[in-house]
Design brief:
four-stranded parallel beta sheet; alpha/beta; globular; 4 strands; 7 helices; single chain; binds iron/sulfur cluster
Length: 193
């Protein structure tokens, strides 16, 4: 029987707690609403740094709006550090060129996940683990995201934490917390396509 990513994560957290460890974690965050529920779950167990690397978000004004929402969320977590990744939207557009007409969930999204997780995996060489909030969305394929995370981790020699944060009411909790913290919630994934 295969173990679900969220159970795998829970079992790793249990082992970490048992040993009294508090490892460092680079958490790629796509937006504040998704990060809200993920931080609530992970913050008690890890020393977290947020990596806001989302060159897919368009237009630039929207990227700034989402980063501002992230800063507003982090005002509730004063110990968490944040790294703002470059908005290299031209690189993103080059990478997804030819896939513009695909619906959300198609090959363009795989390229988009890879771009963001590759950069995160590279930075994560200086951390004990890395993870992403991307698996919280019910519109995103957690299996594919985890495959990409593992692949990039292998490439850079970092440690990926598999997840499916939408499970265990994670997605619903993100909606509750977004209301509680009065966070901006966008009504589209990120790119203009
Ligand atoms: S729909 Fe979302 S995940 Fe897919 S390519 Fe656009 S921004 Fe990336």
């Amino acid at each position: 029987m295969t173990i679900s990513p969220q159970r795998e994560l829970d079992s790793l957290i249990a082992k970490i707690d048992e040993k009294g460890l508090h490892p460092t974690l680079l958490l790629h965050a796509c937006c504040a609403p998704c990060a809200s529920a993920v931080l609530e779950k992970l913050n008690p167990h890890f020393d977290i740094t947020i990596f806001f690397y989302n060159p897919n978000i368009m237009p630039k004004e929207e990227f700034i709006l989402r980063f501002d929402a992230m800063k507003s969320l982090l005002s509730h977590y004063p110990k968490i550090k944040v790294i703002l990744g470059e908005w290299n939207n031209d690189d993103y557009l080059d990478k997804v060129c030819g896939y513009e007409k695909q619906a959300e969930g198609g090959a363009r999204c795989g390229i988009c996940f890879s771009m963001r997780l590759r950069k995160t995996a590279e930075l994560a060489k200086d951390f004990d683990y890395f993870a992403t909030t991307l698996t919280l969305s019910p519109h995103k394929n957690a299996e594919l995201i985890n495959e990409i995370g593992e692949r990039e981790a292998k490439h850079f020699g970092s440690n990926y934490l598999p997840s499916d944060f939408k499970k265990q009411n994670g997605y619903l909790r993100s909606i509750e917390l977004s209301h509680e913290y009065n966070l901006y919630r966008q009504n589209y994934c990120g790119c203009k396509f």
